[in-house]
Amino acid sequence: MKLIRFGNINEEKPGVELESGKRIDVSAFTEEFDEKFFQTGGIEKLQIWLKDNTENCPEITRDTRLGSPFSRPSKIICIGLNYAKHAEETGAQAPKEPVIFFKATSAIVGPNDDLIIPKNSTKTDWEVELGVVIGKKTSYCSEEDALDHVAGYVLHNDYSERAFQIERGGQWVKGKSCDTFAPLGPWLVTRDEIKDPNNLNLWLKLNGETKQSSNTSDFVFNVSEVVSYVSQFMTLLPGDVISTGTPAGVGMGLKPQRFLKEGDVVELGIDGLGTSKQHVKNYR
How far apart are CA 5 and CA 8, in angstroms? Predict the structure, then answer.
């Protein structure tokens, strides 16, 4: 099942995109795709409800804006340097344990909303990533049980301001958390639809030119490993996102380096998770 949220910013309603591509409003079933929805078995209940109610749901027109496919989670946890070739291009050693950092949830926007280059930015960069959405409260889970705690998967562009991240001291979070730096979607695809999250093609294009093209099989730490690992240090709540890292091809790793500027167009996608597109604009 593909969960969506649609409508104007801060006015989104829950919906579903059917196999036919038709989008329907399911706000008669639930007001929101949020922590309570996931914690109370909302996905399974919605699947049952749709068997009898799909035809009665209002259709959503294709030109309607999509927001993030679930409401603001308690946290976005990111895994750094989690592709072997990306670690190599940055000049770093592949980590012996997952590198964890946070991204502010206020950075979340819809999949096709504009990217706003922040004030005083000189090095805004792109990063296509697989996001893992937690489905139930999780602490100290084993690798063997980790996928049972997953609600589904989402496409994420982990935009990063490299000067803020690397050259300004402190932790990475301030280079990751600017407004619009976390477009999610178009869909949250439920776990049953993704056969193997550790074997998905992912790509990113800048102005039509492919910059990133890889497969999650290049993970240093796979999905089960990172879910289990993060749960050893903090409680994961339903709707939380673990963003699993980016492959080689980021602007910082190019020679010469290339960072985003107004007028650029970034497109990205992952097998089974759809595509998104962001037009780049300067902060005003």
Answer: 10
